[in-house]
Amino acid sequence: MIDEATFRRVSDRALESLKQSLIDAEEDGGFEAEDNNGVLNVLFENGAAKFVFTPNTPVRQIWISAQSTSFKLDWLETASAFILPKTGEALKPLTQRLLREQIGDESITLK
């Protein structure tokens, strides 16, 4: 397990990068990204759903609450990324997939 200082640094960087990608995609995507004290929220126009991205320092994971499911991503040093162990997806590709499923639009792309 990585130490707390390293986790905070890499999780802050990963969530900031994700936030910028979401902001770039939100105009055409029907959602809005907002940062609230280190918690990243994605709010959908129809108000029917919300995704929440939270760094969980004690267990050194990024947690995503989306589509009535909790996704727990671990830091994988060899990939320099937070990865969902079950599928091997990194944070941005997983978020992109969840957005596409939620909105029903395969054209949503996170850069």
Question: Would you kindly provide a written description of the structure presented here, covering whatever features stand out?
Answer:
This protein is an alpha+beta fold and 111 residues long. The chain has one domain (4-103): Frataxin/CyaY (Metal Transport, Frataxin, Chain A), CATH 3.30.920. Helix content is 35%, strand content 35%. It is built from two helices and seven strands, in the order H-E-E-E-E-E-E-E-H. It has helices at 4-29, 91-103, and strands spanning 31-36, 39-44, 50-56, 61-66, 69-76, 81-84, 89-90. Strands 1-2-3-4-5-6-7 form a seven-stranded antiparallel sheet. Helix 1 (4-29) runs parallel beside helix 2. The longest helix has 26 residues, at 4-29. The protein is globular, with a radius of gyration of 13 Å. The chain starts with a helix and ends in an 8-residue tail after the last helix. The model has no long low-confidence stretch (mean pLDDT 94).
